[in-house]
Every structure is written in structure tokens, then in C-alpha cells.
Amino acid sequence: MQKISLIIPCYNEEEALPTFYKEVDRVSTLLEKYEFEMLFIDDGSKDKTLEVIKGFAETDNRVKYLSFSRNFGKEGAMYAGFCNATGDYVAVMDADMQDPPSLLPEMLKIIEEQGYDSVATRRVTRKGEPKIRSFFARMFYKIMAKISDVDVVDGARDFRLMKRKMVNAIVAMSETNRFSKGIFGWIGFKTYWLEYENVERVAGQTKWSFWKLFKYSLEGITNFSDAPLKIASFSGIFLTFVAVVALLVVFIRALCFGDNVAGWPSTICIILFVGGVQLFCLGVMGQYISKIFRETKKRPIYIIGESNKEDVK
Ligand code: UDP
Ligand code: MG
Questions:
Q1: Ligand nearest to the Cα of 45, by number
Q2: Distance between CA 11 and CA 20 in Å, rounded?
Q3: Atom 2 of ligand 1 has which residue's CA nearest to it?
């Protein structure tokens, strides 16, 4: 019997979890020829999320949980899920019903009948999301498509159903700086893109503020592209060239027409401009250095506080 593992990262999801659990339970009855495993990852929730999950586990032995010692973020939660899932098929799923469990049968069918290794989902609409957030999200995907060599699809969600071999590849990518959408693209494999309309979360609040998303997008860019480093060095070369030309012009003009002190405000402007560009380039370098720093420390990506699974990794 083949097994499906669902990885569900949860951070303060006490309100949404009962609806989610009921829906997965309903869907699992439609997929009788598979064994199910629900792996809830409690990412250091401050509300009753863990109690709610333990409640499910009491009556349902398909429910497993890992509870982190503190909040490590969704990326850490997903990685813990991948490391501990035992299924032949593994899916990552949000607890808030924005990744509809009812899509699972269709996704399984595509993998089994059409020979794909994974089925990924993308939202074709962003209904119910603030306009400004949608605008910046679109811009991020456009930039990412231009400057990195992995394909990160616009509107792609983390919701995916994958075969075991793909999960093994993800587990092998144990980097500290994680950006899953990039990792999924980087490892390759044949992926089918399933499109669906955006669904709003059933209960609770989104955990992503605009600032958090902005930082996450920078993470995506600097993890999968070195274009910012190239921009920094090219702007350096360009400015040096401009400076040399300008110097020649000033020198020749002084020889022909003599020197006068007019023009110092423009000099100040140039100094400020060049200083700004230099600081910007240093900042870009700093971003990459801080990544190397974090990566070399090889700290664990998550720490488990408690679990009802034997042999947790
Ligand atoms: N999540 C998590 N750790 C965090 C933030 C979020 O495990 O630090 C989980 C959250 O519980 C949810 C999923 O990641 O199941 C997606 O979060 P959310 O719905 O807030 O994001 P959005 O759908 O608004 O992008
Ligand atoms: Mg959500």
C-alpha cells in the first residue's frame, strides 16, 4: 500500500486547524487505496495549536506531530517535515485551507497517470489580497525570472505533491539559508503546474507582514542569483570610467581656459553620489558575506521540543 504524507507547518493556527483536519479526513476517505500520514509541525506556536494537534492524535494514529522549541519560520518547519515524512508521496500544505486538500485526488491522478514527478500549484488570481502586496509580489517574480537561473513561477505556492525521490533531493539540500520555491526549481524533475483560484484563509491571520515578505524576497534573490554582485561591480567600473573622462575634460579645459573655483556644488553632488554607490555595493557584499557566515556555522535548521514520533530526525 502506498503512503501519502502531508506536511503541515502550523504557527498559531488553533482556529483554522479543526476545519483543516475535518477536510483532510474527508478527502482521505476518497483515497482509500492509500495510507495517510499527517505530519503537523508546530512552529513554536504561542496559542493552543499543539493542544489541538494532540487532541487529533489521541483518536487518530495517522496524526504525528513535531513541536519546535521556538518559532523557526515556515522554511524550517517544511524542512523538518521533509526530513521526517515517511510517505511514498509527500505534500506540503498550509493549515489555513488556502491550499485546498480537495485538490489532492486530482494531483495524485496526474502523477500516477501522466508520469510527472511532482504536481505544483499556482494561484492565477490574487483575489482578497491587498493590491500593493500583489504588485510587489509580481515585481519580485519578474526580477527573479530575469536574474536567476532557477524558474520561480509567478503565483507559485509551496503546496506540492512530490514523489519520494524528489523529497530525498530536498533533504540533501541542507543549507541554512532556505528559499523553498528556489530549491524546488533548482532540483529539477518533471513538474506539472496545476492552476487554481486564490482561496482566503478560513480563520486566523496571515503571519506574513509586508516587511517579512520583503526580507524573504531578498533572501530568494541572494540565495539563487549573484546578479546583485555583478551589478555592484559593473556600476563600479562604469563610475570609474565616467570619472576618468570627467577628469580629462576638466584638465583640458583648465589648460585652455584657465581654472576658476566655480562649480564646487556639483563636485559635492558627485562625491555624494559616488559615496552612495560605494555604500550600496558594500551593502550588497555584506548580504552575501552574512550568508556565508550563517552557512559556515552549520547550526541546525530547527530544534524539536517534543513529538509523538519515534526516531525523529
Ligand atoms: N507558518 C509557520 N511558521 C511561521 C509562519 C507561518 O509554520 O513562522 C505557517 C502557517 O501556520 C501556515 C503557513 O505557514 O500554515 C502559511 O502561512 P500564512 O497563511 O500566514 O501565509 P500566507 O498564506 O498569508 O502567505
Ligand atoms: Mg495562508
A1: 1
A2: 14
A3: 74
